[in-house]
Amino acid sequence: MHIPKDLVELIHSSARIVALTGAGISQESGLRTFRDKLDGLWAQYKPEDLATPGAFNRNPGIVWEFYNIRRLKACEVEPNPGHLALAEMEKNSERFVLITQNVDGLHTRAGSRNVLELHGNITRVKCSRNCGIITEWEEISGSSPACPKCGAKIRPDVVWFGEMLPQGILKSAMQAARESDVFLSIGTSALVQPAASLPLMAKQNGAVIVEVNLEETPLTPLVDYFLLGKAGEVLPELVRAAWFR
Ligand code: OAD
Ligand code: ZN
Fold it and tell me: Which fold does the domain 32-76+122-158 belong to in CATH?
């Protein structure tokens, strides 16, 4: 893949870099994206049937089962060269913020430190009544666990369809986007709000927008550089060109 020289220079010299990632970056680790169909027993469901507060109220058991499988899978796979390249980018740039829509925790396992998880983390659980209990999954398990403080149902600490994002994290993400010199949108279909607005906020404030994806998205017509390819191939090359020439 050819990466334009001026982009390499820009990445090398930018003080404030922000990256927004989506399910595409974890695809090369073996995790499915949201556009892939569910398989086996789950083929009859759409993610929208399982990842909503309504689904959890009606049938917490099946929602737990779905998340237990996804959590096990996320813990079993390894970060790939795309995740590692972003951790390396953070080490080499002056100020770097990684905003992710992924709940798999792979960025942190790859060594990224300044990570804003917009949609939560699959390894944590919380009280469904929001009484304040939020903890690692290992601490509270079972097929339909109850909150030790208030007795309400315990649920995965992820954002479901129709729910608000964690407001403090979203605010930090918006601020980072507005203050960025370069904004990278990586492996995301750029469809789901409010994450999809972040590159637009960056652009309005003068940032250069770069997209890395296997296909064009609604964001593509607005970007300054579109790098067509796998995140696990494009990002290591970009980091190598910018800092390890
Ligand atoms: P999607 O599944 O919507 O999109 C994945 C994107 O990654 C697509 O644009 C693919 O073309 C691209 N892609 C796939 N493999 C890739 C690779 N190896 N390298 C680069 N790009 C690749 O996932 P998201 O955009 O993350 O929200 O979805 C956003 C949100 O929608 C999710 O966080 C989830 C879902 O509803 C919630 O659960 C709240
Ligand atoms: Zn509680």
Answer: SIR2/SIRT2 'Small Domain' (3.30.1600)
Question: Which helix H or strand E contains 208, and what residues bound it?
Answer: strand 208-213
CA-wise closest residue to 34 among 103, 85, 99, 84: 103
Contact 212, 227 (CB under 8 A): yes
User: Which amino acid residue places its CA nearest to atom 22 of ligand 1?
Assistant: 24
The neighbouring-strand residues paired with 16 are 95
Q: How far is the CA of 30 from the centre of ligand 1 (A)?
A: 13
- 213 in contact with ligand 1, CB cutoff 6 A: yes
Q: How far apart are CA 20 and CA 6, in angstroms?
A: 21
Q: What is the pLDDT of residues 12-45, one digit of tens each?
A: 999 999 999 999 999 999 998 877 777 777 788 8
Q: How many residues does the chain have?
A: 245
Q: Which CATH number is 5-30+79-119+165-243's, of 3.40.50.1220, 3.90.180.10, 3.10.20.600, 3.40.50.150?
A: 3.40.50.1220
